## 1
Amino acid sequence: MNFRTSRARLATGAVGAVVAGALALSASPASASSSNGFISGGGSFYDDFGDEGTLSTSSHKDTNATCLWQIILYAEGVKESNGTQFDHADIDGRFGSNTAYATKQLQKAWGLTQDGKVGTKTFGSADDKWNPTTRAGELEFRSTGSTDATKYKLRYHGSRYYFDVFRTADGKYRFYHKNVWHYASYKNNSGCS
């Protein structure tokens, strides 16, 4: 290893540490977000989902927030009610019986109560349930973006698939589905179906 390579690695490590520290300290702690209308967070992104509103067949059931949850189900590769894997065609932003069934399957895999509702424990497990063997179930910092809408680029690692999301400067989560970036809103379904 030559001096230039070692120096570059040290510089990269130092920059990564500074960015991680800034993420942990730059914003206020995460707070319940359904009241502000969006899945959102502040401070460390490892606890952003643990205080979110409930998603279920009776709560926020036709929204972009449900769409983001369905993308997590897809990334985790859980089974849907017909026995096949929850697939891309199942992502429609509508929390019906199939999404509830897949949610129960994920809750079982994560050792949670299997009620088919995405409450604070289930949603909270999605951003901090790291499996070192499969590298699944956690948000990972990727980079700092160049605009307020792309402030922090994060990656969700599922057991089967990963996907990227952005957390905006004001903490709102954005995700990509059907060739469009969507805000993870509790109030509308802007084209996930």
Note: Residues 3-25 form the longest helix (23 residues).
## 2
Amino acid sequence: MRVIILDSAQEIGTYGANVILDGALKGTIRTLGVATGSSPLAIYRALEERWIPALAQLKAFALDEYVGLPANNPQSYRSVIQREVTDSLRLDPANVHVPDGCAADLTAESDRFETAMAAAGGVDLQLLGIGRNGHIGFNEPGSSLSSRTRPKTLMAATRRDNARFFTDLDTVPRHCLTQGLGTILDAAEVLLVAQGAAKADAVAAALEGPVSSMCPASVLQLHRRATVVLDGDAARHLALREYYVDTEKNRIEGVGE
């Protein structure tokens, strides 16, 4: 796993945008896994500022969606991705896929979404944030490390964290559809970004703790092409922080990822 520590959200955004722009130009990134939340926003903004026609050719698959929110609800992830990704990067809406959280059969919808990803050739680069309890996507602690896209019940802590986007806690959905940890591991490459001291414990557990369902993000230790990009606050509890900085400073291209 490659760990990069930068000084600001802007630098993180620039780094992530560089990876995507380079891959889009070379044709190595054709399908992008997109995440919502505050963590990837700087990447999307940097891509919008440096937009190139190759970006418009990308296909995108969302990590997750709330159950029960209509697609036109401003807080549905379909709406969020429409605003932050589809419109800003000028993607063809037909190429942007979000699970239908209002489907009559949520299990069948989960299977359909998995099939659509496979038909697109899989995800070339999956963007991720991390929750304060170590979740990625909506894979809460206790999730199977081999799980696939499925319905899940959200933990109270996750709902409290997300309440800032809603009128009050009672309006935050209790259920979701999410790509599974096994689904995320299928991506050819993973880029997780985290900022702020509130994420420091989760980051340390994910990178330096045991691989465990109690910290779902720790499954990324098993991915052969995972990169984690942090600001100094998110990296503050890493025991090997000095080593990560030194490794990056003296990096041999393609080695030690």
Note: The mean pLDDT is 96.
## 3
Amino acid sequence: MLFVHGNGVDHRMMLALDAAFAGSGPWERLYVDLPGFGATPALDAPGGLPQLADWLDEAVGEMLGSAPFAVVGTSLGGLLARDLVARRPHQCIGMALLAPVVDSVREQRLVPPHAVLVEDAALIASLSGADAMAYAELAVVQSRENWERFRRSVLPGLRAADVRAMARLEKNYALPSLPDDRLAGFDRPMLIVTGRQDAVVGYQDQWALAQRFPRATYALLDEAGHNLEIDQPQLVHAHLARWAQQMTQQATSDRAHQQQRDRPEHP
């Protein structure tokens, strides 16, 4: 099971998801840092989204070869995950997308206005200026518990990101074409979880995306912005746990079908 993080953070944002898969079977879980984030060196110029997608495909080829895999992508990782599966449709047994980018062109997204449902002025005042700005940018329900999750999972990646690599990515933040038409016929279990207050990618484009896939589950969470894992961890974990069970069943079914095909025929 491959985990692909979003823009500006690194794999540490997704480590908190690990508990959702504890009871779903012996999944080997691979958490990658995209180039320019975490411990992975930045790409050379141009270093845009097309190059990032190529890098991910090559990395998966080196790590997994032709072995079957499932993929969990969040934000930009949700777009990269779909592009990866479009390149390897027969190798992937399912996708889970958390607040995924549907269209990388921001002006074409349907997004709600920014909203903070619960403010905690004392909490914000207790943080350093940089930390307060980073946290308050996306926090929908401000609380000490919410901040602690942000501090552990998001802030380290924000601090480690290569700002020059991010600038190059920003200049070419689009794929030559969206991958979804190439995913026509993908009938494996798929999960799309969105936030009602997500002012970055929204939730309406994701609903339209879900309708393309016959095995898609779509969830819209209230009191959740773009950082779903931070705002509603229990609900996100519950949906991922169910999806992981579907993946285990899918893998078992695939093995049975393969054994049936490999069985020698007798006259």
Note: DSSP finds ten helices and six strands in the chain.
